Queue: 3 jobs
Job 1
Amino acid sequence: MAFDTEQEPGMTESVAPETRGFRLNHCMLRIKDPERALAFYSQVFGMRLLRRLDFPELEFSLYFLARLEDGKTPPEDESQRTEWTFNQEGILELTHNWGTEKQADFSYHDGNSEPQGFGHICFSVPDLDVAVRWLDDNQVPFVKRPDEGGLKDVAFVTDPDGYWIEVIEPARLSGMGRR
Amino acid sequence: MAFDTEQEPGMTESVAPETRGFRLNHCMLRIKDPERALAFYSQVFGMRLLRRLDFPELEFSLYFLARLEDGKTPPEDESQRTEWTFNQEGILELTHNWGTEKQADFSYHDGNSEPQGFGHICFSVPDLDVAVRWLDDNQVPFVKRPDEGGLKDVAFVTDPDGYWIEVIEPARLSGMGRR
C-alpha cells in the first residue's frame, strides 16, 4: 500500500465517508478594535477582508480575513460571498464585541500566559530573513527572533491584541523535530 | 474597477508585494492527551496526521492535522513531508507538553470562559442535519444545537479538551449578518 499519512495511537486507519466535504473553515479570535486589527493584518500579512457580518441584536461583528493568491476571487454579490467565504479553508475570523475599543483597560487573553490553551496562528513565508526585515519595517513586536531560544529559524511576533503569530520558512525547517 | 474585497476602516487598499507567498499555515491549540485528541479529530472530522514532530529537550510534541480531500498526498520522505506540511494552508496544530495526560486534574483553558480570547475553530459541512446526526452518533457534546440560541443554523460542539468547534452549512448562512 502506498504511503498515506502518519499513524499514531488514536488515529483511525481511514476517513469515515460521513465526513466527506468537511472543511476546516476558520479559527476565531476576539479582537478589541477592528480598525487596529484590520490595519495590522492587511498591511503586515497582506490579508483581504472577504466578509464583514453584523449582528446588531447581539452587538458584535465578524470579520473574515484570508490571503488571496492563486487568482482566487470572491463573488461580488453579498449572499454569494458569505456562502463562498464559509466554503473556504484556513480563514482567520476576528470577532468584535461592540464597545470594547472604547474601554481603556480592556484586553483579551492570548492563551500563552496562564491559563494556557490556544497558542498562536502561523504564517509560512518564502524567505524568513526578508520577512523579518518587513516585520521590523512595520514595527511589529517580536516575542522571539529566529536566532533566539531553543527553536532555531522560528520567529514569533504579536498582533495588536497580543496574540502570538509564528513566522516560518518551510525549507529551513525540513529537519525539525525528527525522531 | 472590478470588485476586489471589502473595504473597512483600517484595511489597506492593496496588498504589499513584500507579503507575496505568505500563507496562513496553521492555528495551534495545546492538548492534554494526544491519543484522545487524535482519536477525536480523525474519527469525527476525518482529519489525517501530516506530521508528528518531537522535541525531547523541550519535552513536547507537535501534531499537524488536515483534511486531505481533492487528492492531496503528502510526500513519504520525512524531511520533504515536514516542508510540505509547512507549505499548506489551514492546518490544525496540536501541541502536547509531555506528561499532562497523566495529571488527573490537568486541563487547558478554552478561551470562552474568562479570561476570553481565542473562540473556536470551525468546520463547514455539506449538510448540517446529516452532520448533527453524525456528531450525535459519535457522542460529541453540543454547546449549542442549530435551532438553539440567537444564531440559527449554527452548531457548536466541544473537542476532548473542551475547545469549541463551530459546525456550519455554508448554503444555509448566505443571508447571515447582513447590513
Job 2
Amino acid sequence: MEKIRRVERVVALTKLLVDRPYYLFPLGHFSDLFGIAKSTLSEDLLSVKNALKQFGLGALETVAGAAGGVRFIPFREGLQANGILEEISTRLATPDRIIAGGFLYMSDILFDWHLVVQLGEIFMTRFAHAEPDYIMTVETKGIPLAMMVARAFNKPLVIVRRGSKVTEGSAVSINYVTGSSKRIQTMSLPKRAIHPGSKVLVIDDFMKAGGTARGMIDLANEVGGIVVGTGVLVATAQPQPKLVDDFMTLLILDEVDEHTKKVTIRPVLDGLR
Amino acid sequence: MEKIRRVERVVALTKLLVDRPYYLFPLGHFSDLFGIAKSTLSEDLLSVKNALKQFGLGALETVAGAAGGVRFIPFREGLQANGILEEISTRLATPDRIIAGGFLYMSDILFDWHLVVQLGEIFMTRFAHAEPDYIMTVETKGIPLAMMVARAFNKPLVIVRRGSKVTEGSAVSINYVTGSSKRIQTMSLPKRAIHPGSKVLVIDDFMKAGGTARGMIDLANEVGGIVVGTGVLVATAQPQPKLVDDFMTLLILDEVDEHTKKVTIRPVLDGLR
C-alpha cells in the first residue's frame, strides 16, 4: 500500500470513530490499519479531538491501560440541543397536527431519522450519568427514538411488545392500566432480552398519565432489571402526578385545544433545568 | 476565531458529511463555516473523497451548478458487505434460535443498531438504481432496519400499522391474507404519509409466503404510490412462488428443522448475484 498522507488518515480515523459512538477501539486497531507508530496515532487523535471540540461535534475520550483505547462520545448539549428542541416545539405547535381526542400527529418527527439521531444524542447527554446497560421501549412509534438512544450509548435496544408474539420464544407478560383511558392491557418481553441485574433506561415518545411507562418499569423489574431512568420526548403537563415518580421529558405539552385549534408546547432547555 | 488548521477542518468536514448520507450540502455552507475560499474547500473535499475511497468507507459526490453541492453516499458492497452477511448468517444458524413453529429468534440482530446501520447501507447500495422517495415497512420488528435504509437514502420512513390507530388521523386500510397462516388481517397507513406519485421501496425483516409484503405493496398503490422495489433481510426458500413476484433478499433460509435442531441459511453475496 502506498504511504497514506496524514490528512487522509485523519479522515478515515474520524469516519470510523464517529460511526460507532461509545465503542472503545484499541489503539492497536488504528496503528495496524494505518501502519503507523502509536506516537503518530496519538498526534492524529489529538487533532480529531480538538476539531470535534472546536466545532461542538462531540468528544473523544482516551482510556488508559491494557484494556484501553479511544472512543467517540456524541454529546449534544447547550445551544445546539436547545435549537433542535425549539425547532421540534415549533413544528409540533401547528393546528393541523391536532387529531380527534386531543392527540398530536407526531409520526413525521418520530420517523425523521436525522432529527431522531440528534434526539438520541440529547437523551444520551442528559442520561450519561445513569450508565444504562439496555435501552427499553414499547412498540411502535417510539422505536426509532429509542434505537437512536441505544446508538448514542452503544447499548442494546429491548422492545416490549403489546400482547405476546410467538416469534420471540418464552416471554414474561404483565397487565397494566393505561392511565388516561383506564383500560387494562398486556405487555410482554422475551425472557432472554435482559441479563438479570442490568441497568435499564426506559424511553418512550409520549407520556400522558404514565401508565405505559409504569408498565415498562414493572416489566423491567419483573425480569430482574434495575431501572435507572425514564425519558420521554413529550409529556403532557396534566394530569399530575403521573404514575411514574421520576422521569425526564424533552418537551412539555401544556394544552391541545380542539376548539380554538391551539397547541401549547415548550422545550425543556439546557441551562434552564 | 483563531485560524483553523487544515487537518482539523478536514475532521469537521468529514464528521458533518458522513453524519447525513445523501444530503446535498451547498459548497457555501462549508466555505462560510470554515472561512475559506471555495478553491481551498475543493482541495479539502478531494482529500476526504480519496480517503473514503481508499479505505472503502463510501463515496463523495459533487453536484455541479447553482443548486449543486457535495454529498456523502455510504456505499457498502463487495467483500465488506459479504463479511457482514456471512456474520449474520453464522449467528442465525445456531440451534438455540429455533422457536416453536419453525420460526427463528432474530430480534437481537434486528435491534443491534450498528449491524442494522450496515444492513441499511447494503440495501441502499443494492437499490440505489431505484431512487425511492419513501421507505415503507410494517410494524414492529422491521422498523429499525427500514429506518436505517431510510437513513442511507436520506428519505422519509413510512410505517404501516396493523389495525388503525387513533393518533395518526384518517387512514387507508386494506385487508390481506397472510400467506403462511391464511388468516385475514388489516393494515393501514395515514393518508398524509405519502405524496401521490411517489416512488416507494418496501422493506421487511422476514418473508415466508409474502402476504405481508403483498399487503404493503397494495396499500402503497392504494394511496397513490409506485412501488419500485421490495427488500427483505431473510426470505425462506419455500414456499415458491411467493405472493410477491419480484423481491430482493439478503439471506435465504433453506430450512429450520425442529427435530434435528438444524438451521440452514445462506447469504446472497455480492458478485454472486
Job 3
Amino acid sequence: MSHDLAVARAATLRPIAAVAEAAGIPVEALEPYGKHIAKLDAGYLAGLKDRPDGKLVLVTAINPTPAGEGKTTTTVGLGDGLNRIGKRTVIALREPSLGPVFGTKGGATGGGRAQVLPMEAINLHFTGDFHAITSAHNLLAALVDNHVYWGNALGIDTRRIVWRRVLDMNDRALRAIVNGLGGGGNGFAREDGFDITVASEVMACFCLADDLADLEARLARIVVAYTREKKPVTAGQLNAAGAMTALLKDAIKPNLVQTIEGSPALIHGGPFANIAHGCNSVIATRTALKLGDYVVTEAGFGADLGAEKFFDIKCRKAGLKPDAAVIVATVRALKMNGGVAKADLARENLEALRAGIVNLGRHVENVRAFGVPVVVAINHFTTDTEAEHRLIADICRDEFGVEAVQCRHWAEGAAGAEELARKVVALCEGGTAHFQPIYADGLSLQGKILSIATRIYRADDIAVAPKAAADLKAFEAAGYGHLPVCMAKTQYSFSADPALLGAPTGHTVPVREVRLAAGAGFVVAICGEIMTMPGLPKLPAAEAIHVSEEGLIEGLF
Amino acid sequence: MSHDLAVARAATLRPIAAVAEAAGIPVEALEPYGKHIAKLDAGYLAGLKDRPDGKLVLVTAINPTPAGEGKTTTTVGLGDGLNRIGKRTVIALREPSLGPVFGTKGGATGGGRAQVLPMEAINLHFTGDFHAITSAHNLLAALVDNHVYWGNALGIDTRRIVWRRVLDMNDRALRAIVNGLGGGGNGFAREDGFDITVASEVMACFCLADDLADLEARLARIVVAYTREKKPVTAGQLNAAGAMTALLKDAIKPNLVQTIEGSPALIHGGPFANIAHGCNSVIATRTALKLGDYVVTEAGFGADLGAEKFFDIKCRKAGLKPDAAVIVATVRALKMNGGVAKADLARENLEALRAGIVNLGRHVENVRAFGVPVVVAINHFTTDTEAEHRLIADICRDEFGVEAVQCRHWAEGAAGAEELARKVVALCEGGTAHFQPIYADGLSLQGKILSIATRIYRADDIAVAPKAAADLKAFEAAGYGHLPVCMAKTQYSFSADPALLGAPTGHTVPVREVRLAAGAGFVVAICGEIMTMPGLPKLPAAEAIHVSEEGLIEGLF
C-alpha cells in the first residue's frame, strides 16, 4: 500500500456535521451525501451574502515538471497550518476529473498528511457534479442535432456545429468521429468528437456563475453553431438552457469535506486549465470567504497559466481581491528546470538549482505585477539536502526579494506548514495587496493576448494566424471585445514550446486558433497543440484498481 | 401545473430516517443523499441474510398502448394499500432513465396520489447509479480501443468489437458513428455507436448480481470483441472488471425513498425491457423481502415481455418464488386493443371493450402458466363508465375465471387500492402459488425461443435467420446453452408486429439476430427492429423544463 493511502486509511474522519459545526455551518444547512460529504443548501448560501469576507490566499506554482511540485498538497497543508495557529480557515479546491484516475496512477486529493478525505469518493463520482455537467452538455448536443433532424428552422450549417460532446473518460478513440451514420432515421452525417468533461464550456460557465440564474443566462449565451451566413446560433435559441440548468440545480451547491487534520474544505468545479480558466467555482470561493477568516485556494498548472487566469478571469469577473499568493516549488523541480534528468534528481546539484531557479524568480515577479504579495513555499522531499534549501532561501531573499519557507506538511501535517502559515498571515495583515488585472477590459482582444505574452510569458511578440486574427475582429464586431482572453498554452514552459524550461526569452507565441466561449465569458487563444481529450497509457491504472474483500477500493494511489 | 405535480408538491415528506425506522431499518444503516433519499449500507444488507422472506407480488400489465395503463402507479398504490390494511409492505421499483425525461413529457415515478418522492430527484440524477453504470461501461470501451492502440496483444479484430458505448441521453446522432478518426494518434478508425445506458450489459449485470463479488465476476465474463479466429475476448482479459466494480461500489447499494403515503420504496437499477430483462435489481428485491411481510414489484412493458422475463430470468436465476401477480389494465387501453382510436377513448364503447379484452384474458392465462395466481386491477380513469367496469368484471369472472378489482389509488391513494390489497393478501395466503419457469435450463437455445413464442406469444412457429441459428449453435458449443433467453420484441403486440393488437394467433416470430450477454447471463433474441438509442421528438420536453425563481424544477410532468 502506498504511503498516501496508508495515511488516508489511518485517519479517523469526523461526521460531516461536526466539520460543518466547527466552520459555523448549522446542520440544517447540510445536504449529506453519505456520512462524510455534504452539499450546502441554497437558502443557507443566499443568507451569507452580507457577511464580511475573509482573506483570500492563492496557491500557485512554478511550471510543472515530472518531478512534482505538490500544489494541492501545499494548499491543504497551508489551510491546516492556518487553522493550527488559530486562524479560522476554509480550503477551496477543484474536483478531480474521473477520466485521468484510470490513466496515470494517482488521484488529486493531496498527499501524505495533507489530504482531503474521503479520497476514494472524491476521486471517483463524489457528489455527481461532473456527471451532471456531462449530462447538461450532452443534452445540448442532442438538441442541436435534433433541431437539424426535425427541419432545421434556425438554418444551422452542419459543417459549422462547434458544440462537441463530452465524457469524463480518457478515450482517444472519441476525439474525432463521424456521427449521424446509418441512414435517414439517424440524422445527417457530420464530423464531431468528444472532449473530456473538464473541457466543457458548461464546466466553465458553472465555475464562473454567481448563482443558478446567472448560470442559466450563461448557458443560454453559449454559441453552438453558425448558419451558412455565419450567424451564431445559441443554446438559448434552442430553448436548452432551462433543462440544462435543471440538471445542474443540485450540482451548483458547493461540496463540504474535511482534511486529515479536520479543516473544512469546499471542493467544487474543476475546469481545464488550458482551454478554460482552471480554478474551483466562484460560488465555492465566495462561500469560503464568508465562512473563514482565511481562504486558501489553488489554480491549475504553473502561475503563468493558472495564476494569470485566476487573476484576469476569475477575480476580475467575480470581484475577488486576493490578499496574498504562495508559489510552490520543490528542489527537485527547480533542478529539472536547470537541466537535470528525472533519474538524477536525488543527487545534490547546486549548480543546476541555481540554473533552474530563474523559473521561480520570474513567477514571483509576475504575480507581484498583479499587485499581490508573494511568499515561496519549498515543499520538502526526503532527497533534498540542507545546502540546497539554504541556496534557495538565499537566492530568493537576495535576488528575488521574497521569503522562501521550507514546508513539511506532507510528513508532518499542519505542524509542517506552521511557518508558512505565519508568513502568509503577515503578508495578508501587512495590507500591501492592491490587486489589479494585468490588462484592461477595453483593450482589443489581440492587445490582451499580446499583453499576456509579453508581460507574463516574456515573449518578444505573438504570431496570430490570419484566420485567428480575422476571428478576433469578428468577435469584436459582434460585441465580445470586452471579454478577457483565456490562453491555451503548454503548461511546461513560459513559451509555447514545452521543452524550453527555466526562463526563456526572445520567443514568439503562436496563436493558431481562437474560440469564443460566450457563455463562460472569455475568448480562448490556442497557442500550439492543445489536447482536450486525453488517452490512456499503455498500462492504464484501471488495470490495478479493484475492490478488496473488505470493500475497500485498492489501486487508486 | 399538472395534477401529478400539484399532488407531489402538496405532500409533506418525512425525513428518510423516519421512513427507514418505520421499515425497521436502523439509522446507522443509512447513507443519506440529501434529506429524503438514502442508500442502505453494505454491512447492514449482509446482516439481513438469515431473516425469512416476505411474500412477493409482481405487478404486470396488458400490452401497453398510448392510452396508458398505470403499472407503476398501481405498484405504488398497491404497496400503500397493503400498508393501510396492516401488512408491512416494501415497494421495489426500477430507477427512471434520464434520457427519456427530455423527450416525451413525463417522469416514471407514478401519478396522482400514488407516487414515489422526491420525484424531481428520482427522475433526474437520483443517487448517480446510472451515471456510475455509464462510466463503468465507457471505461471498458476505452480500454478496448486502448488495448488495440497499444499493440493489440489479444489480437482483437476491430471489425468484430461488439462493445458499443453508452450515454443516458436520447441522441439518435450517436446510434451509428465511425470513431478513431483524425490520424494515427487517435487510434484505428472503425464503426461504433452509442446505446442508451439502460441498454448496457453492465446494467443487466448490475441488476442480476447477488453482491459486489458476483457483479465483478459477471463483468469479467462480458464478451467485448472477437479475434480474427472468432475467439471471444472478455472484459476479464482486459483487466477491466476490477475498476468497473470500483465505479459501481456505491451504486450497488439499494436506494430508499417514500411514497406520498409514507410507504418505504427501494428504487434500484433499471434495465431495458427489450434487449434486457426489465426489472429492478435482485439486491433490491431480496432486501425488500427481508424487510417487508409483503413486497410489491413491477416488470417492464406487458406481461408477454416483462412478466415472462421476470419469471424466466430474474426469478429463475435469483431463486425467487413469486406468490401472486397483479395484471393492470384500463378501460381505455382495452378499448384501444378493441380498435378504438385514441381520440375516441372518452366515449363508452362496450363492443370495443369486449373485442379488446381478449388481450387481458391471454395475459391472465400466461401468468398462470408459470404457476402464479392472478388478480386483475382495473386502474380507474375519470372517463370510465359504470357499465364498462361491470362488463370487465363479468367477463373476467365468467370467461377468464379471475377477479377484476376497480382501483382508485390515483385519486384516493391507499384507500383506493384497499380492495385490491385484500384480494392480493387472499391470493398469497391461499398458498396456491407453485412457481416454475416456462422452460427448463436444459432445453436448447432455439427450443427456449420456440417455447416462449408458442406458449406465451401463441405464435405458430419461429423463423430464425440462418446467421442467428448458426450463432445459437456456436453459443451452445461454447458452453452457453444453459442460459435463459431474453426476447427483444415489440411491446405493443403479442406478435412481432406492433400493429397486431388484441390476441393474435397464426403468426410467426422472426428471430433476426441473437447476441450473447455472457456477463448478464442470457442470450438475447432480437425479433424485429429494436431501438437501443431513442431519439428526441420534434418538440422535446426539454424545451419546457426549467428552474423557477423559487428553485423548483418546472416542466418535468
